[in-house]
Predict the structure.
Amino acid sequence: MSSQQLIVWGVGTSRTMRVHWLLHELALPYETRPIGPRTGETTQPEYQQINPKQKIPVLQHGDFTLSESFAIVSYLRDISDVLAYDSYQQSLQGRATYLEWASFILMELDATSLYVMRRHRDLSEIYGDAPNASDAAQKYFDKMIRSVDGKIPPSEGFLWGASFSEIDILMTSCLDWAMHYDLDLTENAVAYKAGMNSRPGYQSAFAHNYR
Ligand SMILES: N[C@@H](CCC(=O)N[C@@H](CS)C(=O)NCC(=O)O)C(=O)O
């Protein structure tokens, strides 16, 4: 991988956790700029130059800047050779399934369910109180997570192919978030989440992200 410096902007949220977790799994050296959401730090002119969306996380790699947690973890995996892709993960169907998982987790679990609850329940003073929308989002999460229950492996397995990947990071971040909201997870999902949460990379990243 290129020797240019890696800098991660952002700590303290489930989206920033995705990036720190993968960096800890890959054992890549990096610097953290520990800014948080809604602290005023993301609206500073210096940060708006880096990310006009005023959101965290952001990755800087030399003079390359990247936002969006999923794009960042995909990029980080590709610049490191620590997690080799297995033959399924390299196949046409394997790549399509990768996109299927990522779209599902980011759209159905994150954006349409958990983030709606976050915005219109926890952050209602900013985004507006919308109890019907957040109740419906909670029911939708229950339905969506059950729709993939048969594909969630037991505690020792992985979601995509035969090895750990950024798909496990995306899913675990949503399951952690759901557990934090006391949502009703299936036994399978709870066991899978526990397996992921016990990884040394998860634990060191957790301590770093939620300092
Ligand atoms: N789709 C983006 C979402 C990023 C996002 O919404 N970040 C939140 C924290 S989890 C944020 O920066 N909020 C700051 C704010 O709204 O002021 C990603 O996955 O990176």
User: Anything to note?
Assistant: The radius of gyration is 17 Å. The beta strands are 6-9, 31-33, 58-61, 64-67. The longest helix spans residues 92-122. The mean pLDDT is 96.
